[in-house]
Design a protein that fits this description.
Layout: H1 16-21, E1 32-39, E2 46-47, E3 55-57, H2 61-71, E4 76-82, H3 93-106, E5 111-116, H4 138-155, E6 159-162, H5 169-178, E7 192-193, H6 200-206, H7 225-237, E8 243-246, H8 255-262, E9 266-269, H9 272-283, H10 289-302, E10 307-309, H11 316-320
Parallel strand pairs: 1-3, 1-4, 1-10, 4-5, 5-6, 7-8, 8-9, 9-10
Antiparallel strand pairs: 2-3
Helix pairs in contact: 3-4, 4-5, 7-8
The protein binds ligand PBG.
């Protein structure tokens, strides 16, 4: 970290959108982050049957989505980039530059976080690279991830959001950002991320289902409270600016302890399976979707979440009014 930034507290103050996201006010549409998917292989946008109101976009069609979301009052986006060609040894720089640059050139006012992981890129769908024996190779994974983080920043990303769960990624991203003139770019870490059954619809959207095995050698075991806390504390020490629990609902008990232990903003990710389950209840006439969403958001707020990533962020104003 550069001397002048010290603990880096100024990073979270550098834009109006970040100040809105992290204010200590209660739930507000500006504290919601909208996920976006841009998939290189698509000829046109497609709706996701499991996630009503969510689309997989091309780098063109995403622009009209962002335009209407901005009009609806959404400022923060979390972009998932899904390359058409899967590769374990190269970075699709052009696709990343075009997708990120396209959005930021047209809408410089949005705050664009980029999910930083390898699962949509690798041939096997794991979040890290594999060694010859087929085990996750932590250090080469972190090196590749930091190169990707730098590519995102070079393309105009406002924030980097590591979701891979490798050891040392936050410190490594901070180092590569700082040494390339991106001291102001914050890291929003998926700091307490569990291995979960609630990511199913997402993996379809991100083309990231592991071809073999599962993610239990890198994502946290839901039975382990100590690891859940340690994981966020460690990311705080490595220089993360924002922390996160995920899935939100099954990690609800950890939000306040993490916040008290680190004094950093802690958000919750209402993941695809959580959103889809409310949609299914509503489709079957068992609840009203918007009311059920509002209830969950109020509970995240009660539990101490300072921001919320949700697939219905773009409907925030309407749902909270
Ligand atoms: C990538 C990543 C995942 C999600 C966000 N980033 C999937 C996973 O870990 O398998 C899940 C988001 C959701 O379900 O909405 N590693």
């Amino acid at each position: 970290m550069k001397e002048s930034y010290g603990m880096g507290l100024r990073r979270n103050r550098t834009s109006p959108a970040l100040r809105n996201l992290l204010s200590s006010e209660s739930l507000h549409p500006k504290k919601l982050v909208q996920p976006l998917f841009v998939a290189e292989s698509l000829a046109d946008r497609e709706a996701m049957s499991s996630l009503p109101g969510v689309f997989r976009d091309t780098k063109q069609t995403v622009l009209s989505q962002v335009e209407s979301d901005l009009k609806a009052g959404t400022e923060h986006f979390l972009l998932f980039l899904v390359p058409g060609h899967k590769s374990d040894d190269s970075i699709p720089v052009q696709f990343y530059e075009d997708a990120i640059g396209g959005i930021k050139k047209k809408f410089p006012e949005v705050f664009l976080w980029i999910d930083t992981c390898l699962c949509s890129l690798t041939s096997h769908g794991h979040c890290g690279l594999l060694d010859k024996k087929g085990r996750i190779d932590n250090d080469s994974s972190v090196k590749r991830l930091s190169e990707i983080a730098l590519c995102y920043a070079n393309s105009g990303a406002d924030g980097i959001s590591p979701s891979d769960m490798m050891d040392g990624r936050v410190a490594s991203h901070r180092r590569i950002l700082d040494s390339n003139g991106f001291e102001h770019v914050p890291v929003m870490s998926y700091s307490t991320k569990f291995k979960s059954n609630f990511y199913g619809p997402f993996r379809e959207a991100a083309e990231s289902t592991p071809g073999h095995g599962d993610r239990s050698s890198y994502q946290i075991d839901v039975r382990n409270r100590e690891d859940s806390l340690l994981s966020s504390l460690r990311d705080a020490q490595e220089g993360a600016d924002l922390l996160m629990v995920k899935p939100g609902m099954t990690a609800i008990d950890l939000i306040r302890p993490i916040r008290e232990a680190t004094d950093l903003p802690v958000g919750a990710y209402q993941v695809s399976g959580e959103y889809a389950s409310l949609a299914l209840l509503a489709e079957n006439g068992f609840c009203k979707f918007e009311d059920a969403l509002r209830e969950t958001w109020q509970v995240f707020s009660r539990a101490g979440a300072s921001y919320l990533i949700t697939y219905a962020a773009r409907r925030g104003k309407e749902i909270l009014s």
